[in-house]
Design brief:
The protein is an alpha+beta fold. The protein contains five helices and six strands, in the order αααααββββββ.
Length: 157
Amino acid sequence: MTALNRVPSLMARAGTASALTIAAVGGSIVIPGVAADASAATIATRALQVAASKKGSPYSWGATGPNRFDCSGLTLYSFKKAGKKLPRTAAQQYNKTRHVSAGSRRAGDLVFFHSGSSVYHVGIYAGKGRIWHAPKTGDVVKLQKIWTRSVWYGRVS
């Protein structure tokens, strides 16, 4: 019997009310052996949570946290806290990720803004066409809708 086949019986043992309660509070049920991309997904999810926790932190060129960030400083800091090392600049980060299509993007992927072949900005994809990022001088870390189609996506692995 595979781990996936055991899910219904595990759910029954956990109890429907317990499973619903866990889901309602944003928790998850850990089932040993059921995880194809779990570690990558966990790192991306944690990085996304770290970035969101920095909401309102001021932008500062060259800053890598913990209280001030530039765009790649925020992604570097977020993934470092999640347990993954990234290079310093947006372009270097792009070169270090596994490139994915817009249709394959997932929350926690990096979103790279480019002009021609030059990457000039990066944020962390939050879903629904939005990113967490540190936009520019005078601004703060925030959740914002992606404003252009000139973006590439990269998955940290």
